[in-house]
What we know:
Elements: H1 2-6, H2 9-24, H3 32-50, H4 52-65, H5 82-119, H6 123-138
Helix pairs in contact: 2-3, 2-6, 3-5, 4-5, 5-6
Amino acid sequence: xxxxxxxxxxxxxxxxxxxxxxxxxxxxxxxxxxxxxxxxxxxxxxxxxxxxxxxxxxxxxxxxxxxxxxxxxxxxxxxxxxxxxxxxxxxxxxxxxxxxxxxxxxxxxxxxxxxxxxxxxxxxxxxxxxxxxxxxxxx
Length: 139
């Protein structure tokens, strides 16, 4: 489980490449494509800043502390508090909403990038952006 959440090297590298491309294209794209690229960058920064993996790992450690008492006739299970679960579920819900907004923003930016490719404007830059946006969508 730890590897599933902590192994985000591919996401980090794609974010770094995308951030660098946005920085280079800041003055080139001042239209709707530039606005969409900024939306994607902001969503990715928020997603990376949430650090949801630490909460899941903390909950897993808490769950290991609580064991079933099988020696007695009344087998009791002690779980973490309701507040801890509620906090984790609220964070999970916020993460899901942010993921939906990120995917929608990536699709919008990809659409604008494809439009510029069909018009043959800034071919190299838009080709790199389209490739990076498709990799981000996949990750």
